[in-house]
Amino acid sequence: MLLIPCPFCGARDETEFAYGGEAGIERPADPEAATDEAWTDYLCFHDNPKGPHRELWFHRDGCRRWLEVERDTYTHELGAVRLSRP
Amino acid sequence: MRRQPFRAAEGGHLIDRSEPLRFDFDGHRHEGYRGDSLASSLLAAGVRIVARSFKYHRPRGVWGFGPEEPNAMVTTGVREEARPNLKATEVPLSEGLEAFGQNAWPSVSWDLGGAVGLAGGLMPAGFYYKTFMAPARWWYSLYEPLIRRMAGFGPAPRTPDDAFYAKRRIHADVLVAGGGPAGVAAALAAARAGARVVLADENTRFGGDLLRAPGEVGDSDGLAWIDTATAELEAMSHVHLLNRATVAGYYDHNLLTVAERAGEEEGAPGAPAMRLWFVRAREVVIAAGAHERPLLFDGNDRPGVMSASAAGGYAHAYGVLAGRQAVVAGNNDSIYRVARLLRSVGVSIAAVADTRSGGDVRDLPCRAGEAVERVLGSRRVRGVLLRRADGRAGDKGERITCDLVAVSGGWSPAVHLHAQARGSLRYDEERGLILPDRAGGANRSAGAGAGRFDLDGCLEEGWAAGIAAAASSGHERAAGEPPRSPDRNAGEAPVFWQTGGGKRFVDLQYDVTAADVDLAAREGYRSVEHVKRYTALGMGTDQGKTSGMAGLVLLSEALGRPVAQTGTTTFRPPYTPVPMAAMASGLLGEGRDALRRTAADDWHEARGAPFTAAGLWRRPRYYPREGMDEAETIDAEVRETRAGAGIVDVGTLGKVDIQGRDAAAFLDLVYANRMSSLKTGRGRYGLMLREDGRVFDDGVVMRLGENHFYLTTTTAHQHEAMQHIELLLQTVWPELEVYATDVTEHWFAAALAGPGSRALLERAAPELDLSDDAFPMMAVRAATVAGLSALVFRMSFSGELSYEVAVPADHGLALWTRLLTEGREDGLTPYGTEAMGTMRIEKGHVTHAEADGRTTPDDLGLGRMASAGGPAIGKRSLELPALRRNGRQQLVGLSVIDPEARIPPGCQVVESDDMRPAPPLGHVTSFCYSPTLGRALALALVENGRARTGQTVYIASPVIDLSMAAEIVSPVFYDPEGTRLNG
Amino acid sequence: MQRYSIFSLLRGAFSGHRDWEPAWRAPEPKSSYDVIIVGGGGHGLATAYYLARNHGIANVAVLERGWIGGGNTGRNTTIVRSNYLLPENQRFYEHSLKLWEGLSRDLNYNVMFSPRGVINVFHTDAQRDYWVRRHNGMRYAGIDAELLTRADLARLVPALNLSPDIRHPVVGGVMQPRGGVARHDAVAWGYARAADALGVDIIQDCEVTGIDIQGGRVTGLQTSRGPIGAGRVGLAVAGHSSRLAEMAGVRLPIETHLLTATVSEPVKPFIDAVVSIAATHAYVSQTDKGEVLIGGSLDGYNSWSQRGSPARLEDILASASEYFPRVSRLRQLRHWAGVMDMSMDGSPIIAKLPVEGLVMTGGWCYGGFKATPASGWCLAWTLANDAPHALNAPFSLERFRTGAVLDENGAGPVAWGH
Q1: How far apart are CA B844 and CA B336, in angstroms?
Q2: Which candidate, B41, B90, C394, C403, has a CA 20 to 30 Å from the CA of B466?
Q3: Cross-chain CB nearest to C268 (options B122, B152, B959)
Q4: Inter-chain CB proximity A43 and B877 less than 8 Å
């Protein structure tokens, strides 16, 4: 069970959070101008590393902020946790 | 008073001889003492056969002392109260305890299943993979049921476990797993340094190995030192001491589960049977001790063959003689200590066989360089054959009479928690030990669990680990001097495992022999995991605590490769079995999920409404009426609403308050259709898409001010919709100044529907002008309704003239009851979700039955609406070829031709009514009987559906063999022109 | 191949079982093969077997990083069924089920396929409509399916809690009678032995570290045991699909997630069918050994750790105890987590990749074990014909570009939502 240090609320169990997948995926600024490939890259083709991963977590049962968390997907060790900014 | 023939006249620090307890085993009455385990009391009573083995039904006795016990599995209690698969070594004796041996009929001492053993030659490892294949049907109709009945240890449970279980979640600086000398030293050091400490130990008393054999700490008795140290810890407010508490699982970020058998403690009335602790520790000290290894020789499973330390432990802790005459055999110095312990309670020592050549001790009948070749006796030990350990030719060996063979093959550190935490292991070739290597997480291992077998070493390592753990968690007060012991004999054991041939059991629980391991290796199952899975070695309830190392060494020998290269199987939690009921506690019944009720719920309940689940909410289905069945009642609610006025509780809808400078711009991005063009005081139906272009949610958006909106979401998706909005605001468009607040719980809402609703509302809200001009469709006004401050929206789900009235949730029940009182003379009809659903189907509105996550706006006939707005979420995906192609399923109405027919649930839409396999055209999404139209109606998604309007198709449910003809029509069955919306 | 039968066992009994041959050889890798399959789990081994048996391509190696069957093949809840919603999935899984039905004899290895019935119970009108519709759809696809009343459930699953007084009472159920369970390890071993007998080299402890591509065509693999040439390469590595595809410069719409499963201590039989609970997503069966086997839903965040959260565990054990109250009297023996290759629409990918000669099977989500025979069958076909079979044509990679996704759950492009 992960213990995620929320910048607002302190360290909390993972059960208070909702996962949001890979962080920093750029939504095409002008979707209509994006090719099908660029658009579906954004939609479906994400990083899936075994190791360090930047990802979004939503403090659903706390401050309701979306956080950007560095986490190793194998060891589950956490790195930096901060408020999400694209 | 009944005799305990194998109880010494005195001794036994765990038992209280002043309190004898009676118990039954397999229907025979015996006696033991308070403090006994079932195993110790059975041994005291002279019961030697306590179980039958899994595969061959061989008689088995007690082997171990604690959770490592592979053999002595029992069921306690009878019928409804039966608890299967308990280890006799872990069952505390209690007055009137009833216990039964397992896997035997009629009893463990006379077991007809023993005949199976005669066919043992047909059942080598993995035999079932090689036969029972033809004919195919026979496997599951004949062989498998037979095998299932033969397998399974204990009886199937008949009732739930209704004992009281509890959970506690705490934070600690240091969790110490194991309360032997190393663990107690660690806890003392860490606590003195100022750390918040939890010390958990599985036994009834701290002491670890000191419970089984005496030792010295400082210049006093070891257990006395343990008592002093734990008394000091007990007095500290920042320390939790847990006896009968097994550290079971080690999880991410140093969360550990500790299963405390609180109910077994004396004088703890009202205590839960088990308290399951979830300890989040900054640091963990693993002082889990070690398990004694068996020796492999022919008949090493006979009742009477026992772990040497266990035999010594029964003597020391319980004053129990595990036999009258013992052969103690092993490959390390601990056997001498055991022999003396046994002798001290009156066991006569026939021989001490030490596989090593040195080690002769004068006061014992030593046989240096000798090992047990074979056990004599068929149901229990009657003697052994000793031979030279180096297998010198021509040695015929010597028979020695005995009824106890106490064996020690050395020790395996309990590295389970270390390994569960993802620590790496290393194999110490010289010492034959698998040891913790790099830690996986904030933990350190100490004592026997880390390969230190001398008491002084355990104390030293434990102390140092405690100091270090406290320091890592920020506590560095002076802790004083570490305890020391004169015992510095590390008890090293050379790797020596087996002698001779015959039936040498590796895994006693699953009847895996050395020959099985050898066979597996020869057949190509060369990975240690393959061997485990092929032979079942280590798969039992003891999880291979005694068998693992022996299996590993045998396999390595068979493969001719070093043990270090063979590797271990994965250590999975829990360390010992944990009751399901403990894990489940707090999460059953109402504890499963919150039950959400609207503000008017009490009224619905008082009216006897049956409820339906809508997510976590409950909603009234209908309001029962005297002399009418369910269908008639629902029909009446619909008819009365359409003819007069009805009221429905819509408090479950999600509600979001949106404010800020960029609120309108933001909503244009969230909804497929445009919201910024809304005028203040007006609302609009809104369609939210997922980014993949599928319809996600819908609701109404109302503009309360220039920068202030109030929107509703569906009941089903209210959480997802809110989370979606917050995701977009915080990660995609953080530059927008928008504040979104979930106000679902703040507001209650009721809808008044029907041509009579205007007149009723006029009376309830006299200052509100409800004329079409002043209050048109999709307008919103603040008003006082029934004396309550409210927002009133004119909108319609039912297809009738309709107003939704929202008030602060605290006033919800008042609003509901006042409107009903106000409407009494108008015949205001409360209606439930069934009538609401019927009216929305008649009107062709979609819900999540239609917007099922696969449908596009166009599929649902909402394509034009979606194309109206700007580049909102999901719009780009609508351009992908598969979302634009022809032939997609589209929403249509189905009007059943036979007015008497009723549509069953889950129907497909097909071209023919013969029910033969054929690709369906689509499926029914929603269905009802329409009292308004006098026939059954359905909404359906049908391939190219709109182009099929007017065609006859079949609505069919093959699983109940029912079909009916229906005509494809517009999904808006009722008042397609919308004239009734205006009253 | 040494035939297995009751007679061979009898002979073995008289010879002290000294004459059993290795079930498969342990060959050194050759310098090149016509086809190399990466991944010695059920899917990879099945692919090799069908390549040799159905297509006469036997110059094949299966490379396994660890030990065969050591991935999800040996770590799943062993359920076999074809009760799917979407026609493409129905056809594929039904083909698989038919292969299961003859598999023990086909392989001369008892995989203990036990069609004891797979039951789904539901709790609300909406769930009822969905499950009955799904089973009606199965009937139209020629698959067995039945509707169960509460009385049926009481008869078929006496241990099931049908009380109206629980948080989410059971209102009914559906069943696929031909669904059931099989012995997971035996599937890997049986395919391995049969493939080996046809000449396939099964090479364990051989990790692939690179994929050689020349002129847009795969030519071989770099491995921990040296380079090996290959005419074609099939990837059958489940949770590790992303990593292998990445070696060929291909990105996949797959994310790796954890799925926890747990067993109780073994007891005598009291649960005969496989029962899946809609309200809690838990599924419960009892193994031949007597253990109650319980699975649940994903932990819900990308992970390769094979170690699940205790929170999920509490949840699935509570689910099992709620719906099988007697289970609460048992004790949990061990738990583990599989590494699930969750695709973006919940359906698999069995397809040619954008490198000539490179094909994959993956994105199995929860369906991997039951799909084993058909996945191997289809991947073998695709390798042999350089084109997909009609059964796996819908499971293309291209569908994620065109939007023709097979979203069995309607959850959208959220890997952990399926």
Answers
A1: 88
A2: B90
A3: B152
A4: yes
Enter the pTM of the model: 0.96
- C110 with B589: Cβ contact below 8 A: no
- CB A21 to CB C311 under 8 A? no
Cis peptide before B294 (omega within 30 of 0): no
Sequence letter at residue B283: E
Interface contact C19, partner B, CB < 8 A: no
Cα separation, B23 vs B16, whole angstroms: 16
Q: Which residues contact B746 (CB under 8 A, 6 or more apart)?
A: B655, B808, B809
Bridge partners (DSSP) of residue B106 are B111
**Torsion of the alpha carbons at B682, B687, B689 and B694, rounded to the nearest 10:** -170
Query: What is the 3-state secondary structure of chain C?
Result: CCCCCHHHHHHHHHCCCCCCCCCCCCCCCCCEEEEEEECCCHHHHHHHHHHHHHHCCCCEEEECCCCCCCCHHHCCCCEECCCCCCHHHHHHHHHHHHHHHCHHHHHCCCCCCECCCEEEEECCHHHHHHHHHHHHHHHHCCCCCEEECHHHHHHHCCCCCCCCCCCCCCCEEEEECCCEECCHHHHHHHHHHHHHHCCCEEECCCCEEEEEEECCEEEEEEECCCCEEEEEEEECCHHHHHHHHHHCCCCCCEEEEEEEEEEECCECCCCCCEEEECCCCEEEEECCCCCEEEEEEEEEEECCCCCCCHHHHHHHHHHHHHHCHHHHHCEEEEEEEEEEEEECCCCCEEEECCCECEEEEECCCCCHHHHHHHHHHHHHHHHHHCCCCCCCCCCCCCHHHHCCCCCCCCCCCCHHHC
Q: Which of C12, C140, C334 sits opposite B908 (nearest CB)?
A: C140
User: Which of B417, B414, B436 has the alpha carbon at shortest distance from B425?
Assistant: B436
Rounded to the nearest angstrom, the gap between the alpha carbon of residue B301 and the centroid of all alpha carbons in its chain is 34
User: Are residues C409 and B136, on separate chains, in Cβ contact within 8 Å?
Assistant: no
- Which DSSP string do the residues of B35-56 spell out, in sequence order? T-BHHHHHHHHT----EE-TTT
Give C304's contacts in chain A (Cβ within 8 Å): 50, 73-74
Subunits with 3+ Cβ pairs within 8 Å of C are A, B
* Alpha-carbon distance A70 to nearest alpha carbon in chain C (angstroms): 12
CA distance B424 to B438: 5
Nearest chain B Cα distance for residue C31, angstroms: 23
Q: Subunits with at least 3 CB pairs below 8 A relative to chain A?
A: B, C
B422 chain-A contacts, CB cut-off 8 A = 75
Two tokens at C26?
Answer: 């342990």
Q: Mutation target for C interface from B130, B597, B611, B878: give the one with most C CBs within 10 A.
A: B130
| pLDDT tens digits, B409-467 | 999 999 999 999 999 999 998 888 999 999 999 999 999 999 999 999 999 999 999 99
Q: Give the one of A3, A31, A56 whose C-beta lies nearest to B253's C-beta.
A: A3
Q: What is the pLDDT along chain C (418 residues), one digit of tens a residue?
A: 899 999 999 999 888 898 999 999 999 999 999 999 999 999 999 999 999 999 999 999 999 999 999 999 998 999 999 999 999 999 999 999 999 999 999 999 999 999 999 999 999 999 999 999 999 999 999 999 999 999 999 999 999 999 999 999 999 999 999 999 999 999 999 999 999 999 999 999 999 999 999 999 999 999 999 999 999 999 999 989 999 999 999 999 999 999 999 999 999 999 999 999 999 889 999 999 999 999 998 999 999 998 889 999 999 999 999 999 999 999 999 999 999 999 999 999 999 999 999 999 999 998 899 999 999 999 999 999 999 999 999 999 999 999 999 999 999 999 999 9
CA distance to partner chain C, nearest, from residue A77 (Å): 11
